Amino acid sequence: MSKSIYAAVLAMGAAVCLAAPAEARVETGPISSLYERDGRALPKKVQKHRAKKHTSARRAGTRKSARYAAKSRGKKAARAAVGRKARLAGRAVTAGRSGGGGGASRGCLQAPAAALLSRIEQQFGPVKVISTCRPGAVIAGSGKPSKHRYGLAVDFDAGARKQAIVNWLRANHTSGGTMTYARMSHIHVDIGPRFVSLGAGGGRRRS
């Protein structure tokens, strides 16, 4: 064999050896973001895996959002069910709730409530006290502590003076609540946030 032919065979062999690893690197190299950076499409197997993973994550997020929305709607419905009527009605013993044993003693009242009752009687004369302190009392519907629980509320029978006393309370009692009941001469007053609820249980007026 001549030297020129021998040299050509060697050259061809060297070329094959050099080309094989490069081709192998392209086909069997690690699957990574290099494909995305150099413009090449990811293998179909990888694309399918990523699509499946994305779909699972999206479904999980949808289920989580649905559970959160349902929970939120439940809380709003519960608050709406309580309503202002139930929250205010539960502040008074004449609403028909028992709170662990009530009484009509004036001695258990805290100073602000006792002073309010004294002002009412100074203006209109003695009134018949129905309820003052109710240990453990809670507000109907919400379970929150009632003003009667702390000696900060009084229920009394105003008799024929009901309207006159209510008018006076609306003008002068700004440090708590005033509540009356439909077809009853009872009045509830307490110390705290101001509110006026007239005719509870029978189309009352509010202010």
Description:
The protein is of the alpha+beta class. It has 2 domains: 3-82, no CATH class; 90-206, Muramoyl-pentapeptide Carboxypeptidase, domain 2 (2-Layer Sandwich), CATH 3.30.1380. The chain is built from 5 helices and 6 strands. The protein has helices at residues 3-28, 34-37, 44-89, 111-124, 162-172, and strands at 128-131, 153-157, 177-181, 186-190, 195-200, 205-206. The protein has a 6-stranded mixed beta sheet, sandwiched between helices. Strand 3 and strand 4 form a beta hairpin. The radius of gyration is 41 Å and the shape is rod-shaped. The termini are far apart. 22% of the residues are buried.
Task: Compose a concise summary of this entry.
The chain has 5 helices and 6 strands. The protein is an alpha+beta fold.
Describe the SSE topology:
Elements: H1 3-28, H2 34-37, H3 44-89, H4 111-124, E1 128-131, E2 153-157, H5 162-172, E3 177-181, E4 186-190, E5 195-200, E6 205-206
Parallel strand pairs: 3-5
Antiparallel strand pairs: 1-2, 2-4, 3-4, 5-6
Please describe the structure with a list of short key phrases separated by commas or semicolons.
207 residues, rod-shaped, Muramoyl-pentapeptide Carboxypeptidase, domain 2, alpha+beta
Q: Describe the main β-sheet briefly.
A: 6 strands, mixed
Give me the side-by-side strand order of the main sheet.
1-2-4-3-5-6
Low-confidence stretches: 21-37, 93-101, 203-207
- Put simply, the count of helices is 5
Helical residue percent band: 40-55%
Give the H and E element order: HHHHEEHEEEE
Shape: rod-shaped
Please give the CATH architecture of the largest domain. 2-Layer Sandwich
β-strand number: 6
* Structural class assignment: alpha+beta
Total domain count? 2
Q: What Rg do the Cα atoms give? A: 41 Å
Mean pLDDT score? 74
Q: What's the CATH topology name of the largest domain?
A: Muramoyl-pentapeptide Carboxypeptidase, domain 2
How far the N terminus sits from the C terminus, by CA atoms, comes to 118 Å
| Proportion of residues in extended strands | 5-15%
* CATH class call of the largest domain: Alpha Beta
Oligomeric category: single chain
